[in-house]
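User: Sequence in, structure out. Go.
Assistant: Echoing your sequence, followed by the structure tokens.
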Amino acid sequence: MKAFRILLVIMIMWILGITGVVVINHGWNLIPIFFGDMLSFTWPGQFNADFMCFLLLSGLWVAWRNQFSPVGLILMTIAIFGGIMFLAPYLLIVSYQVDGDIKKLLIGPARETV
């Protein structure tokens, strides 16, 4: 679990650093570029479409883990739009909330059976 948590911290720092540089150089104009690339049917568009599928699965998992509660649905939306900037901190926080229990981390404490 310690290695996993270290990886999450590295991911958080790395993506925040890259995002900061991109925002400084190109602004916040992500949406038209992201979907424009998909509509161009090029490799960047294929990558974005593939990534969008991962974002949707991530969001659905977060909602499912939280039993599709109102909070879970809000977290799902944040996961879809936030990507790893949401998911890495979420997993880091939850890993401490469940005391490193990977089963509780993945399925949520409410689904755990004895």
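User: And one key feature?
Assistant: The chain has one domain: 2-107.
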